[in-house]
Amino acid sequence: MTTAALPMPRAVPLWRKIPVWRLVFYAIMSAALYATYLRLFHGLGSVTNLSNEFPWGIWIGFDVLCGVGLAAGGFTLVAIVHIFHIERYKPVLRPAILTAFLGYVLVVVALMFDLGRPDRIWHPLVMWNPRSVMFEVAWCVMLYNTVLALEFAPALFERMQWRRPLRIVQAISVPLVIVGVILSTLHQSSLGSLYLIVPSKLHPLWYSPLLPLLFYVSAISVGLAMTIFESWHSAKAFGKQLEWPLLMSLGRLLAVVLGVFLAMRFMDLSRRHVLGAMLEARPEVYLFYLEIALMLIPVVVLFSGVVADRPRLLYFCAVSAILGFITHRLNVSVTGIQAMTGANYLPRWTEIAITLGLIAAGFAIFRTAAKYLPVFEHPVEPEVREST
């Protein structure tokens, strides 16, 4: 008696074994690499829709103005822990510093795409122009990158068990923290100063003498929101316990800072007598309302007290605050300029591909660093030697 042969199982295609998010990552990076090739070998005109009338697009508006702000969690948490001595926030300090360090490195990379001669990015080091706001921003970003590298270095030294370098960095930690907070304060506000020289080319809903202060306060708010955002995703990705009491207290602080920002915003509009511009039926006015709504939602939700024991709602508030911050910076750098100058600018797909590539690279590097370095562990305290 013979039996029928069982059918052989079908081989699963290799692409089906790869997670969808990884396929998306590969697609984004492939497009970004191709756009990078065009930018390097065929110039800005081959990859952007920039012009003499509109020389700064999303590479400045998003990659630089938003990128620097989204990395503000580093100086915000460092100031809270080391200057105000609120030690309970230490568990979320290292992830915030790593995010800030990666953010600033990618800002420098993005800036090299926008420069006509990226090989001359080092010129501010030797060609000084202390009267220029951009000179001050360039030096602050460069120095703060160095400070962030040193602030995150203990995680690497602990992983490699390099005790002597670890002791050296720990010995200079206090002046390092002070220098880092000063540098952050300077350039976060100076980015707003860049637009003070164009009063006739920026819509009155966004042009204000308070732009430096508004940029600084909004950077603090988005730094808190980014800490909540990254803590949520890190807990999901690495199976870590969510630091719920800490994140809840950060949420309350986020509501206060956003409330201060919105109050300053409307007081400034009233003082400059431009509240009437909010009633015009124009596209930029609708984007202004979107910006305000995205920032107002977290304030209302967090002050109402309904977030207690509801982590998803806190995460939603953080995302809304981040999107509100991005909308504000893009309104200043793109929407408000287009409204007043009449210039037409729509990013080319290559501009978007490079921007998405930088974001994807940041997520990938953060994941790798968190996997192999003690990012979510408490820092090793300096050794205390008994006196003899």
Task: Give keywords.
disordered C terminus, Formate dehydrogenase/DMSO reductase fold, 388 residues, 13 helices, mainly alpha
Describe the structure.
By secondary structure, the protein is an all-alpha fold. The chain has a single domain, classed as Up-down Bundle (Formate dehydrogenase/DMSO reductase fold), CATH 1.20.1630. The chain is 68% helix and 0% strand. The protein is globular, with a radius of gyration of 23 Å. The termini are far apart.
Record the SSE blueprint:
Blueprint (H helix, E strand, L loop, with lengths): L13 H4 L2 H23 L15 H13 L2 H11 L9 H22 L18 H28 L2 H9 L1 H21 L17 H28 L5 H28 L11 H22 L6 H31 L7 H24 L16
Count up the helices. Answer: 13
Top-tier CATH class: Mainly Alpha
- Corresponding CATH superfamily: Formate dehydrogenase/DMSO reductase domain
Could you describe the largest sheet, including whether it forms a barrel? Answer: none
Q: Overall pLDDT, averaged?
A: 86
Give the beta-strand count. Answer: 0
Shape: globular
β-sheet strand percentage: under 5%
CATH topology: Formate dehydrogenase/DMSO reductase fold
Specify the structural class: mainly alpha
| Stretches with pLDDT under 50, minimum 5 residues | 382-388
Q: SSE string, helix = H, strand = E?
A: HHHHHHHHHHHHH
Which CATH architecture? Up-down Bundle
Overall tally of domains:
1
Distance between the termini: 92 Å
Helix content: 55-70%
Rounded to the nearest angstrom, the radius of gyration is 23 Å
